[in-house]
Amino acid sequence: MVSTLGGLQSLFGGQAKGPPVTNIMFLKTHKTASSTVLNILYRFAETHNLSVALPAGLHVHLGYPRLFLARYVEGVELQQHFNIMCNHLRFNLPEVQKVMPNNTFYFSILRNPVFQLESSFIYYKTYTPAFLRAPSLDAFLASPRTFYNDSRLLKNVYAKNNMWFDFGFDPNAPREEGYVRARIAEVERRFQLVLIAEHLDESLVLLRRRLRWALDDVVAFRINARSARSVTRLAPETRERARSWCALDWRLYEHFNRSLWGQLRAELGPRRLRGEVERLRARRRELATLCLQDGGEPKNRTQIRDLRLRPYQSGRADILGYNLRPGLDNQTLRVCQRLVMPELQYMAHLYALQFPEKPRKNIPFLGE
């Protein structure tokens, strides 16, 4: 059995000053590294015995792609408020406020829309009508109106301005300057922080400060990441077409990317930021050594020995996961399992803990 007492003592050190924030709403956008952030929130909820607003019944999303309604949450009729809400939903503030306390911390995450669209095309290829008929993303973007139909919005949500849609806005709205600025201002008023996927470590440093959490609360491995072979390299003209096609997403991303770096400069400064990011990365390396086999290298589905840790596969994506080191003691094993547990399995696990009297959520692909 691997002895890890010293590693675990280090693992749970570094508490931030002040009481930690425990009422949190994370708007989980699609294909933006949001599954990694979800894992952070699920772990914190389980560790601190917090309630999570989970999808009702056998569902895995909170009504998505329909606008969120409070009734999509399991147990909402019995519990006045929940501590954490972080599953996929289309943002609808009045209904969210029925579920979350008044002092809730709201945050979300965005990704460069070019790469977000590329990821969506691969991941939702077999689900989205606009993608289904397109032989490639190049072909789709060369003539998007050949494939995309505005009237099939709820089926085609992943094909145009998907992040804008997730915030509750119209992805087919005209790019009128007054409208765009008003919607961005709306997001800014409600969300105390918007992370940026391309700068995830810097974002997590700032998130940790805002939530007053321990360093280890925000350390994470990449969850739901694709293998390099299922990532499409885009030509410069394709990238430009993607920015134009997803112009509303682009405006949202540009604004909050600038906002993030403005906040980092104001609160930390370059030197301190570099130090905080390195601390985060060093702890991640320590955890990888502690938990993961083969130096922490992600594995494809067939290489993952524990069926419970195999991630869901979608479209043409090759989603990676992890193998844990053999011989871990029980305490370390529980910590490491939480760090690598795919989101559907973790959701089902929390549901069983929170609602032991209800039927378990079924994860069909685990039996394959």
TrEMBL record:
One of its GO terms (molecular function) is galactosylceramide sulfotransferase activity. The keyword Transferase applies. Its main location: Golgi. The keyword DNA-binding does not apply. InterPro entries: Gal-3-0_sulfotransfrase, P-loop_NTPase. It is a single-pass type II membrane protein. Keywords: Glycoprotein, Golgi apparatus, Membrane, Signal-anchor, Transferase, Transmembrane, Transmembrane helix. GO terms for biological process: glycolipid biosynthetic process. It is found in: Golgi apparatus membrane. It comes from the Eukaryota. One of its GO terms (cellular component) is Golgi membrane. Gene3D superfamilies: P-loop containing nucleotide triphosphate hydrolases. Belongs to the galactose-3-O-sulfotransferase family. PANTHER family: GALACTOSE-3-O-SULFOTRANSFERASE, GALACTOSE-3-O-SULFOTRANSFERASE 2. This is Galactose-3-O-sulfotransferase 2. It comes from Macaca mulatta (Rhesus macaque). The lineage of its organism: Eukaryota, Metazoa, Chordata, Craniata, Vertebrata.
